[in-house]
Each structure stands twice: as structure tokens, then as C-alpha cells.
Design brief:
By secondary structure, this protein is of the alpha+beta class. The chain contains three helices and two strands. It has one domain (2-63): Glutaredoxin (3-Layer(aba) Sandwich), CATH 3.40.30.10.
């Protein structure tokens, strides 16, 4: 549910993103686990990690770009 909200949020902002399905992509799952997370969505913006759909934090990071 939050993955789709995040994708919609980014698309509405005109932000290019890569969506990866950890249930279908073992490499993506391993990268997620290497980051120390077992939940989705996880978003990386300029090396900063945002877990879940944290609109406020995403807005802050996108303004810094």
C-alpha cells in the first residue's frame, strides 16, 4: 500500500525513480537486507535512507537537491 503511495508521490513531483519488487528480485532483497531493513518501501535520496512513506522527510530531501 505505501509502496504505491510513494510511487504516486514521486511521479507527481516529477522525480525519476527505480521501483524494485523485493518479492520477485533476489538481488533487490539482498540489497535491502544489507541496508539493515526488512520492510518496504525504502527510498534512498543522495545517500539518505527513508523507511516507509515519510512525506515530510521526503519533501525535505527533495528540496535539498
Amino acid at each position: 500500500m505505501f509502496c504505491h503511495k510513494l510511487q504516486e508521490f514521486l511521479a507527481n513531483k516529477g522525480v525519476a525513480f527505480e521501483s524494485r519488487d523485493v518479492s520477485q528480485d533476489e538481488k533487490a532483497l539482498n540489497e535491502l537486507l544489507d541496508l539493515g531493513y526488512q520492510t518496504t518501501p525504502v527510498t534512498q535520496i543522495d545517500g539518505e535512507v527513508v523507511v516507509g512513506f515519510d512525506r515530510k522527510r521526503l519533501e525535505e530531501l527533495l528540496k535539498e537537491q
